[in-house]
Amino acid sequence: MKKNKRLLKLIDNFIVLSFDQNDNLVEESVRKFSKMLGNLPTSQAIPALSDYYRMLKERIDKTTLTIESPIDLSPGQIERIKSYFGKWHQIKRVSIEINPSLFGGIKVKIGDMVYDNSVQRRILELKGVING
């Protein structure tokens, strides 16, 4: 199905207006725009809401540093990782995920970029499952 260019432009504007000047999500705006898009005819509302939420997630992901570690990290370790990646990326949020299957090391994701320095990855490289 061909996408309505005017609707896509409207959604782009909603995305911009869904964040404040500090690039923080404004939940009231998200509720308001979701309701407006939800009031469209069903054939337009479903893809419009899907696009809106996808684009919100992409924008949030670009400024969210996700750190996966097999153990809890100290505030100092988190700050060093944030500072290192902050040289190349604007970081607004940090998310910590505990993943014991990594065995050691860390995996960092920001936007589309993934930096995997985990023992799990090295084991898979040695087995030839993935390319190093």
Key attributes of the depicted protein:
132 residues, 4-stranded mixed β-sheet, alpha+beta, 50% helix, 2 domains, 5 helices, elongated
Strand and helix order: HHHEHEEEH
Beta content comes to: 15-25%
Cα separation of the termini: 40 Å
Structural class: alpha+beta
Compute the CA-based radius of gyration. Answer: 19 Å
Structurally, the number of domains stands at 2
What would you note in describing this structure?
The protein is of the alpha+beta class and 132 residues long. It folds into two domains: 57 residues, no CATH class; 65 residues, no CATH class. Helix content is 50%, strand content 18%. It is built from five helices and four strands; from the N terminus they run αααβαβββα. It has a four-stranded mixed β-sheet with strand order 2-1-3-4. Strand 3 and strand 4 form a beta hairpin. Helix 1 crosses helix 3. It is elongated. The chain starts with a helix and ends in a 5-residue tail after the last helix. The mean pLDDT is 93.
